[in-house]
Specification:
Length: about 180
């Protein structure tokens, strides 16, 4: 092996070892026609949960019915983004709603409108445990629902990991600039 190739291999190993940055997390699809919750086991840490237009964009508990109420100046039936997060060691939380608890969902004319108004959520898991994502719907008939929610769960790196990643990137830059060990 030439000196240049050895240097490249060492730089690559250091970069892969030291640079611990957040990567896109797993994606999930919750079908509004299913009463089964999605269960995840997450390590302690801080997580960002974000809805996106994947298999599902939003859900409607009345199929595809949308009703505008002139008195309330809003939709009383339509598309929504509401998922209840329950789990060991965390308080029950409503996700993606465009307004905080108590639970009063806003309804929209289209799934795209509901998704556009969905909040990005941040949760903190204080200790290992099962975090259960489940739909909470005010009716017991899931078969007339339409759509669902697609979302991604990403762990935010600890400050130490970000520092270590920055040091790794700095070392790589330093070595490349010096062109010698």
């Amino acid at each position: 092996m030439t000196k240049k190739r050895v240097k490249f291999v060492l730089v690559a190993v250091v970069a892969l070892t030291c640079a611990q940055v957040a990567t896109a997390g797993p994606t999930f699809d919750l079908d509004a026609k299913s009463a089964s919750p999605l269960e995840l086991t997450l390590e302690p840490g801080t997580y960002v949960i974000e809805a996106f237009a994947g298999k599902f964009t939003a859900w409607n508990r009345w199929g595809s019915t949308v009703v505008w109420d002139n008195e309330k100046n809003g939709y009383t039936q339509g598309w929504e983004m509401s998922v209840k997060l329950t789990g060991d060691g965390i308080a029950d939380t409503w996700l993606f709603q465009d307004q905080p608890a108590p639970y009063t969902p806003n309804f929209y004319a289209t799934p795209q409108d509901a998704l556009a108004n969905a909040r990005v959520e941040t949760i903190v898991i204080p200790e290992p445990g099962t975090v259960k994502f489940s739909f909470v719907i005010n009716d017991n008939i899931y078969t007339d629902n339409a759509g669902g929610v697609s979302f991604q769960v990403c762990r935010i790196p600890a400050p130490g990991a970000m520092l270590l990643g920055s040091l790794g990137a700095g070392l790589v830059g330093f070595w490349r600039r010096r062109r010698a060990f």
